[in-house]
Amino acid sequence: MSNEQVEKVRGWLTGRLPDDWFEGPVEVTIDREEITIVGRIPAPPTAEGVSDVEREAALSGRVSAFRESTRERRIEIARELEHRSGRKVAWGVECGDRQELFTRLAAPVMTRLRQPERQVLDTLVDAGVARSRSEALAWCVKLVAKNADTWLADLRQALTHVEEVRSAGPTPDP
Fold first, then answer.
1. Are residues 76 and 124 in the same domain?
2. Residue range of the domain that includes 74
3. Cα–Cα distances in angstroms (integers) from residue 151 to residues 1, 85, 160, in the given order
4. Cα–Cα distance for residue pair 1/129, rounded to 1 Å
5. Distance CA 2, CA 84 (A)
6. What pLDDT, on a 0 to 100 scale, did the predictor assign at position 89?
7. Which of 78, 107, 136 is the last residue of a domain?
8. In the chain, which ranges are E strands?
9. What is the per-residue pLDDT across 87-117, written as a single tens digit (0 to 9) for each?
């Protein structure tokens, strides 16, 4: 998606979201089917020297409280944005050092794989890493995304540059 599209959605959200929901601007990610909105919420105060288990439980409680207390308004805002954009909307928060996403879209993707690639998926299923080929493929995509962040970021930046050059070019006559 172009930077302009992301900026337009982020700008609309800046005007539409309640001021007290997030600390700072929201992060907006757009693909062909979905818009994901992630905002930072304040971490709960904990006593000095608390265990990691207690700190994690406090963060989990804060995320749950935000999710429940904002549910109706988030649904209302999502419906408006879905109507404007033609895409589904997912929400998420960052709290402390964790990020949690709510109600994300799982879009089917058709792919053709040759036997060696299918064997990789079947090995993951047979080993119990995944329940199905579909889940195994999703696992592989997550693994690549995790281990190739820099490369994928460079690729996305190059695509953004291509889009900018394309839009600056001549427009054909109708």
1. no
2. 1-107
3. 18, 29, 14
4. 33
5. 17
6. 95
7. 107
8. 27-30, 34-41, 88-95, 98-102
9. 999 999 999 999 999 877 777 788 889 998 9
